[in-house]
Design a protein that fits this description.
The chain has 246 residues and is α+β, with helices and mostly antiparallel strands. It is built from seven helices and 13 strands. The chain folds into three domains: 52 residues; 104 residues, no CATH class; 88 residues, no CATH class. α4 packs across α6 and α4 crosses α7. It binds zinc ion.
Length: 246
């Protein structure tokens, strides 16, 4: 059977994964998953001369199908005058720039009071400059896009060897269950000796019934990747034959 793709949108990644699981058609299995959007809140920060313009700029940068959670003005626009002392205009500008940070602009700079050159380094006095500084508006928009997953599903023949063996061990568990009286609805996992396994669930490894948690925790798939016979000698061939007949 040809592989096909399921695309799911949900509020969270977990929900999207649950929905993917429930949408996989009978006889098909999840082969791979690609997260298109993780559904987590994100923040866009923008700077402009005026608050409204900063919000517009931030809004332009985000897609229109997202939910806006919060709009916040972090810094209001303002104009103020600062005085700096320096021996020349260039160093006055450099000093100012380091003081005002990168969200403000120097609008004008003028010499307010000339300093003194001094004599042999004695009596030297810096100039005084007045600067008009424009603090720009800094805004932040917090938004959330939906979580989006693209999942590829395929038939048994598309599964990697260790996954095929896993499905075969599930099939063997269902066979084991079929031999149990119908009144028996739950069994105990043989691997951990505690977890209940519901009817028709679990993996039959050798003659032991394993719960899904033990199967994942003991990394049976990883062991099967390293040694295809890890779940029993000849099991890979049995799994192949079962797949061909299914
Ligand atoms: Zn267990």
């Amino acid at each position: 059977m040809a592989d096909n793709t399921i695309e799911i949108e949900a509020e969270t990644l977990e929900e999207a994964r649950e929905q993917v699981k429930s949408r996989i058609p009978e006889g098909l299995y999840l082969l791979s998953e690609r997260v298109i959007s993780d559904g987590k809140p994100k923040t866009a920060r923008c700077i402009a001369d005026k608050t409204g313009a900063a919000f517009e700029k931030a809004q332009d940068g985000i897609s229109s199908d997202v939910a806006v959670i919060q709009k916040k003005e972090l810094t209001s626009p303002a104009q103020n005058v600062r005085t700096v002392e320096a021996f020349d205009e260039q160093s006055a500008r450099t000093q100012l720039e380091s003081q005002i940070g990168n969200t403000a602009k120097i609008k004008s700079l003028r010499l307010a009071m000339a300093g003194k050159k001094g004599f042999l380094g004695i009596g030297k006095k810096p100039n005084q400059y007045d600067a008009e500084v424009c603090q720009q508006a800094v805004v932040e928009i917090t938004y959330k896009a939906k979580a989006k997953i693209s999942a590829t599903v395929g038939g048994l023949s598309s599964l990697p060897a260790e996954r095929l063996i896993g499905e075969y061990l599930r099939h063997r568990a269902r066979q084991w269950w079929a031999a149990q009286p119908e009144s028996r609805t739950v069994a105990t996992c043989d691997a951990c000796g505690g977890q209940p396994v519901s009817r028709n669930e679990g993996h039959l490894v050798g003659s032991s019934l394993w719960c899904d948690d033990c199967y994942a925790d003991k990394d049976v798939e990883g062991q099967l990747r390293r040694d295809p016979n890890a779940a029993g000698f000849g099991v890979p061939q049995e799994a192949q034959r079962w797949a061909a007949a299914t």
